[in-house]
Write a structure and sequence with these properties.
The protein is α+β, with helices and mostly antiparallel strands. The protein is 25% helix and 41% strand. The longest helix has 29 residues, at 7-35.
Length: 264
């Protein structure tokens, strides 16, 4: 039995088969080219600037896994007496209500500390801009400018650092944990006012065994990055328990100041 064949039908079938294979391939190639384009990089920069409220530039963007953005050569320009802050590699993974940031290493100098303190204060108080929870994992962290990628040079050891920014029933909290030869932890909790005309209350608990630069502590209490407090080598360790209410702050702090420059 012979099957009737039509040259036109065969040609249409071949064209349809080629289209079904080529169109998805062309779409994927075009999308891949777009993800590597300057337009996509600028779009990511604008989205991050809107989310952070700070200017930022990105040198290169990668997408290693679905839902993950890896940014190279990120830069926060100098502003308000704060020096520019550079981040070699930053990886962000977003879910429905949470962002996870991963950094292979970073040095906790006055520049990065000033940015972190500013963003922490905004996250605690600005509920309109910062609506999502955020987890930051730094594989290797060290205080001071001496920290390097390979861990060479003086300064504190390169240990993991984790920052958790969470929300619950209107309250917001930041938990900072650094685990190495010692375990340091800082908790800051903001409770919303019970009445519309009331004031928010805060709770701060800290246990610091690894020496922290006194200049960073000064930044946290309102000093500008350019102000020298106790000298460039001054450090502090200790514990802090503080509470705020309508009557003001009260609490207890115990610690040790070391390497103070008495001339300053």
């Amino acid at each position: 039995m012979f099957v009737a064949r039509s040259t036109a039908r065969i040609r249409r079938a071949r064209l349809a088969f080629m289209a079904m294979g080529l169109i998805p391939t062309a779409v994927l190639v075009g999308w891949a080219i777009h993800l590597r384009s300057d337009a996509h990089r600028h779009a990511v920069e604008e989205r991050w600037q809107e989310a952070l409220g700070l200017p930022i530039t990105v040198g290169r963007i990668e997408h290693p896994r679905p839902g993950v953005i890896r940014a190279h050569d990120c830069m926060l320009p100098a502003s308000g007496g704060r020096p520019a802050v550079a981040v070699a590699v930053l990886e962000i993974e977003s879910s429905a209500d949470e962002d996870r940031l991963r950094l292979p290493w970073i040095a906790g100098d006055t520049g990065t500390s000033a940015v972190a303190i500013e963003l922490a204060g905004r996250w605690l108080t600005d509920t309109l801009r910062f609506r999502r929870a955020c987890i930051i994992d730094i594989a290797r962290f060290s205080w001071g400018d001496a920290a390097t990628r390979d861990g060479d040079g003086p300064g504190t050891p390169l240990d993991p650092l984790r920052i958790e920014c969470v929300r619950h029933d209107g309250s917001r909290a930041i938990r900072i944990v650094r685990r190495g030869t010692t375990e340091d932890e800082v908790r800051i909790v903001r409770h919303p006012a019970a009445t519309p005309d009331g004031i928010d209350t805060y709770q701060v608990d800290a246990v610091i065994q690894t020496p922290v630069p006194l200049a960073v502590v000064a930044l946290a209490v309102g000093h500008t990055p350019g102000v020298t407090v106790g000298g460039p080598q001054a450090t502090v360790t200790g514990t802090l328990e503080a509470r705020s209410s309508e009557a003001g702050w009260q609490g207890e702090a115990r610690g040790t100041l070391a390497r103070l420059d008495l001339a300053t």
